[in-house]
Amino acid sequence: MRRPLVAGNWKMHGSTAENAVLIEQLINGIDGRREGAEVVVCPPFVYLPEVVRRLKGTPVRVGAQNVSAEPGGAFTGEASAAMLKDVGCEYVIVGHSERRAHYREDDAVIARKFRAVLGQGLVPILCVGETLDEREAGSTEAVVGRQLEAVLSLAGVASFARAVVAYEPVWAIGTGKNASPDQAQAVHRFIRDRIATGDGKIAGDLRIVYGGSVKAGNAAELFAQPDVDGGLVGGASLKGDEFLEICAAAG
Ligand code: PGA
Description:
The chain is of the alpha/beta class. It has helices at residues 16-29, 48-55, 81-86, 97-102, 107-119, 132-136, 140-155, 181-196, 200-205, 216-223, 240-250, and strands spanning 5-9, 38-42, 61-64, 91-94, 123-128, 164-167, 207-211, 230-233. 43% of the residues lie in helices and 15% in strands.
């Protein structure tokens, strides 16, 4: 059985004071049952040590939103996977569409980031997804397939035994317009089938979460799909009550 996972992507939001309030709400409201969903929060880099400290001893895990593909050196403004591990991160979002679109991250660098994260024993949350133009052109599977292929060819199918995949249609992110449960299920099935061509057991165990305008009001129907194993939540993860409701909907 795959344990559902709900990860909050705070993006470039928060402050020391705001984070303290949000974390307090999460700690007080979280259902720590082992059979419940695994819950992760991904604050901006600068707040990681503080958030790790506040969540110590609670069931809530901490992830980063990005990582360098390089192990270290003269890369101004970057943080390595080893540094993220050093400060207590366990997860790292890799290849988010905002990184792909605004920072020109291509499939090749994303594959290298994925490998760097695994190299430190952290769990990559690999984001894949098509734009609206690509969906309307009927190329959703070609795009998602290409994004997966880049990682598979560099890191191998075995690496997916320690990874999470997030299907995030770009047109659904931050728009208030989520993929329908059927649309999400179809792409999640496609992803699982693609991994299964390499290894059926790894595909069966792989957690594939959905992201793109997940809210308290639509989480349950999305998570009820057989291949949707939780969510990657942006806007709604900044509201403690709503994020807790989404976590409860996952398991
Ligand atoms: P959203 O963002 O929930 O605000 O649509 C999701 C994401 O970008 O991970």
